[in-house]
Amino acid sequence: MTKRTLEVFRENAYLRTCEAEVIEVNDRGGVVLDKTVFYATGGGQPGDIGSIDLENASVSIGATIRSGGDIVHVPFEGQPPPTLGSEVTATIDWNHRHLLMRMHTATHLLCSIVPCGVTGGSVGSAKSRIDFDLGGHVLDKQHLHDEINRLVEEDYKVETVWISREEFDARPELARTMTVKPPADAQSIRLVKIGDDVDLQSCGGTHVLRTGEIGRLRVGKIENKGARNRRVNIHLGE
Ligand SMILES: [Zn+2]
């Protein structure tokens, strides 16, 4: 699938706004731009909300989804979309996104502490979770709490690294989440690296630049999801 939209958040998750042109308005009012700062729902991370502004009007965007190769900005009901060819300014709700960036990065830290298969996960601004297939491993809530906060305090660098499809296929451990795989047709794969050896895995989401930016975390409920499976919930703040 050809991507018609330049995804500027991939290289710089801190961009809140960009100028763009409307290249499609679908029959349900969804807007496709030639360039966007909006992350589309996927990989366990919710899509952005925000606005698409024209000279004399502002369209509130209530959801961002992926459809085929496109990122579709979906206006709230009753909001007329901009017309094809319009020059617009796309702006995300930064407070919402930054919470998700902190939370998303925190889920990588949690992954790095538990040496088990990841069967699912979800990032939310109030709560995030990772599901683990524990095998014979036993989880200790206090240990998780201490370790995840240690990794935050030690303020590791978070960076994006790209590798070839061949290298990725030769290193299956880089696909940490069993249920989320990079697109099958992708020739280069995006990895997110934390510190020198804290965490390294393929991921297409948005992250903060240093683990210290996440702030203190609280490990919430550990839910029993079957004989081998446990769901670990984390929250921002104490
Ligand atoms: Zn990630």
Mean pLDDT reading: 94
Strand order of the largest sheet: 3-2-8-5-6-7
Bound ligands, named by name, code or SMILES: zinc ion
User: Which runs of at least 5 residues are low in confidence (pLDDT < 50)?
Assistant: none
CATH architecture of the largest domain: 2-Layer Sandwich
Radius of gyration: 19 Å
CATH class bucket of the largest domain: Alpha Beta
Overall 3D form? globular
**Fourth-tier CATH superfamily name of the largest domain:** Threonyl-trna Synthetase, Chain A, domain 2
Provide the structure class.
Answer: alpha+beta
Provide a descriptive summary of the structure in words.
With 238 residues, this protein is of the alpha+beta class. The chain has two domains: 6-92, Beta Barrel (Elongation Factor Tu (Ef-tu), domain 3), CATH 2.40.30.130; 97-236, 2-Layer Sandwich (Threonyl-tRNA Synthetase, Chain A, domain 2), CATH 3.30.980. Helix content is 16%, strand content 37%. It is built from three helices and 15 strands. Strands 3-2-8-5-6-7 form a six-stranded antiparallel beta sheet. The protein has a four-stranded antiparallel beta sheet with strand order 9-10-15-14, with helices on one face. A hairpin with a 4-residue loop joins strand 5 (50-53) and strand 6 (58-67). The termini are far apart. The model has no long low-confidence stretch (mean pLDDT 94).
